[in-house]
Amino acid sequence: MRLRTIFITVLAGCATLVPTVPSAAAAAGGTAPSCVARIADEQPHGLIVWVRNGCDSTMRVKVIMDWARDTPCVTLAVGRSREWTYKVGSYNRTITC
Q1: Rounded mean pLDDT, 43-71
Q2: Which of 22, 29, 53, 84 has the fewest CB atoms within 10 Å of its CB?
Q3: What is the pLDDT of residue 29?
Q4: Backbone angles phi, psi at 57, to 5 degrees
Q5: CB 73 within 8 A of CB 48
């Protein structure tokens, strides 16, 4: 079985050179800004969804899944991350809340 890794957004080294500030588009319920990194990684034991706050301020985010329960709204301080593992379902998107 071939493992498939989906990199949705990865913070590159250059991202630390230009600070990103969440825009008005990041209003509650909208797609999380690009300074919030998200990775969905398919592993033999399930789908791992990882989010990290690379923004200049604390962010409240929620992972939206297809065919699985969405995560609760979590508060991520600057530089903090969170990880969830799913046995079923697929990643849809990450929103602000």
Answers
A1: 97
A2: 29
A3: 82
A4: -145, 165
A5: no
CA distance 31 to 24: 11
Alpha-carbon separation of residue 68 from 43, 57, 71, 91, 92 (angstroms): 16, 29, 9, 9, 10
Length reported for the chain? 97
Q: Which two tokens stand for residue 92?
A: 């849809």
Q: How far is Cα 45 from Cα 88, in angstroms, rounded to an integer?
A: 10
Confidence (pTM): 0.71
For residue 91, what are its two tokens?
């990643």
CB 49 within 8 A of CB 32: no
**Which of 62, 43, 42 lies closest to 51 in space, CA to CA?**
62
